[in-house]
Amino acid sequence: MSGKNTKNIACNVVPIPNLIVLLRPHFSNTNIIIVMAKLAVVAFGGNALLRSGQKGTYQEQIQNVTKTCESLLGLVKQDYNIVIGHGNGPQVGNVMLQHEAGNKSFELPIMPMDFCVSETQGSIGYLIEQAFRNIFVKEGIRKNVVTLVTQVEVNGEDPMFKNPTKPVGPYYTEEEAEEYAAETGAIFREDPKGNGWRKVVASPKPLKVANIEIVKQLSEAGHIVVTVGGGGIPVIVKEGCMYGVEAVIDKDLASALTAVEIGADEFYILTDVPKVYLNFKKPGEKALDTITVAEAKQYLEEGHFTEGSMAPKIRAAIYFVESGGAECIITEAGQLGNPVCGTRIVR
Description:
Layout: E1 12-16, E2 19-23, E3 32-36, E4 39-44, H1 58-70, H2 73-77, E5 81-86, H3 89-106, H4 113-139, E6 145-147, E7 151-154, E8 166-172, H5 174-184, E9 187-190, E10 197-201, E11 206-209, H6 212-220, E12 224-226, E13 233-238, E14 241-244, H7 251-261, E15 266-271, E16 276-278, E17 286-288, E18 290-292, H8 293-301, H9 310-322, E19 327-332, E20 343-346
Parallel strand pairs: 4-5, 4-15, 5-12, 6-12, 7-13, 15-19, 18-20
Antiparallel strand pairs: 1-2, 2-3, 7-11, 8-10, 9-10, 13-14, 16-17, 19-20
Helix pairs in contact: 1-4, 3-4, 7-9, 8-9
């Protein structure tokens, strides 16, 4: 800022999508200060939809989603542009059970994994949209919320397709698993906790988010965008055409890819703990406030973070920051109003 009459002068705020314009009035040489709104990608954790011990009823899920969306009000009121990713583990498992029950009782066809993911993108997106809209009515906020059914490209030659490890769907007896494997060609593995046998699918690395330009345009126009639900619908591309595959994409890594591709300033990964810990629930437990990418890699190699829990989140954080992001914050939703919340991964 330069020129006369710039000190101690009240400013008017003029809302323009993606811009905050401050006008200094009453002077012929009025100063106009344009500040770009910050863009944040927020990855909802599993507990944003379903808490431990719950059955997953509609009422349970809408109450949980509403509470999580309320935690984002601070960012909304600070004029952040927001893009949301979310998980779908319990929901896609329920969809698979519904398909199986329908097949047994009414001979309805069982749909493939990519189709099941698309179903949950729509249903969970509906819950998030409804929660935000009702919150905004109470808060007097005028803002659109839109859900995109989103395909995410993966490499058909990804090594994970040769060694699928991601368990999905219900548990079966060994005999049932062998029967289904013979009928469908699916791969089943025994649960290490002795609960039975489950279908396993690949969890390939996400390469490209479809319609990412639309996600960026909508978010920059000030709309809240819900995308890459459940990590995105997994597809491979052959000669320009997309084909769904039996796979599950990690939602944190897909959200990180989205954040990188739209140039997000901040990336939030919401989970069920306020910070990342070393020696979690063990003697010498230590909460981490701010760590560098190098430290995060070191702790990951030392085995401090559990696969299927915190390890994927750390990898997603590393990817975001190494790809040019300023920082990734891992925390629980209720901490978002705290300016020093969570564990921050920086360069």
